[in-house]
Design brief:
Helices cover about 85% and strands about 0% of the residues. It contains four helices and no strands. The longest helix has about 35 residues. Keywords: Membrane, Transmembrane, Transmembrane helix.
């Protein structure tokens, strides 16, 4: 049950917070630099697959070790590292090969990946710890 709580809470936090950031900050920034290269609306199936698998990766590499160590701050810091690596891989690769990719997109999205992943992982660990100890 603890694993289910961990996954669901991490995924819900990740999705909810990222949806706000994507619509309010990232989309306008990407439109500024990429213009008509962006779709009018995202392809939902690939986005859903990313989120489902990424949260699994967060749990395997970050949240479960932190939960076992009873160390929510470990989830925050290791999640931030994983997020910076994952989002940075995407951003720096695109910056290296695409004409219209801009350093502002790289910096903001890489930092966002760190904050989002670390925060989601820590909140998931805190929730799983609290809900499993109260049940």
């Amino acid at each position: 049950m603890q694993l289910i709580i961990l996954y669901v809470v991490t995924a819900v936090v990740f999705l909810a917070v990222d949806a706000v950031m994507l619509t309010k900050v990232m989309r306008p920034l990407f439109e500024t630099h990429l213009g008509d290269q962006l779709l009018d609306s995202p392809r939902l199936a690939p986005a859903a697959l990313f989120y489902l698998f990424y949260v699994v990766g967060v749990l395997v590499f970050v949240s479960l070790p932190a939960l076992r160590a009873d160390a929510p701050l470990q989830a925050l810091f290791m999640g931030a590292l994983l997020g910076a690596v994952a989002y940075g891989t995407y951003e720096f690769t695109n910056f290296a090969v695409m004409k219209s990719w801009h350093w502002q997109m790289v910096a903001l999205d890489t930092a966002w990946g760190a904050v989002l992943t670390g925060g989601s992982a820590m909140i998931g660990v805190l929730a799983a710890r609290a809900l499993s100890s109260s049940g």
